[in-house]
Amino acid sequence: MPKRVDHEERRRRIAEALWRIACARGLDGASLRDVAAEAGISLGQLQHYFSSKDEMLVFALGHISDLAARRVGERLSTLPGTPAPRDVLRESVREMLPLDEKSRTGHLVQIAYFVRAVHDERLRGHAKEGVPALREFFAGQVRSGIDRGEIAPDRNPDTEAALLIALIDGLGSYALLEVWPAEEALRMLDAHLERLFTP
User: Fold this and answer.
1) Running along the chain, 199 residues long, what does each successive block of 10 average in pLDDT?
2) In a domain, 107, yes or no
3) Does residue 8 lie within any of the structural domains?
4) The overall pTM is greater than 0.85
């Protein structure tokens, strides 16, 4: 009887192999064959799931986002009662900084995606869908903060959300380059949230 293949598990293995390569040496020089070898499968098996590095990269980004959202949810579930908007924003931005090996690898994969997407309209679709969704999520938390009297009512939720994303990207990138420690980047983000959550 043929062995039953768990296709989602194999996709995850491929994504994790891609992360490890990105973390160790970046993606520019990594071929599909390299990723297949790292995942412990044949090139033909990998190409059954992904016909190009770009397809694989977009899948890996989605998988990273899912894992990050799960980790944020787990941390928020340990808080008493319903998490406040500030808690939700703080845990979300914390997950988006390279504070540990998992988030650092996720950051490296995102940078590899960014470099390729700048020159590829098809790849930019991931950012054009994902970033507005993240902005709307953050804006929703800001609106909740305004409704609760925790944020000044004259703040524009969409603008604050976009500024927060830009701040995370900048601080995270320079933390990755060790211009400042990741913990310092988190401290600066906390200072920004402190100012935002001042009625």
Assistant:
1) 69 83 72 89 90 80 79 85 92 88 78 81 82 94 97 97 95 92 94 94
2) yes
3) no
4) no
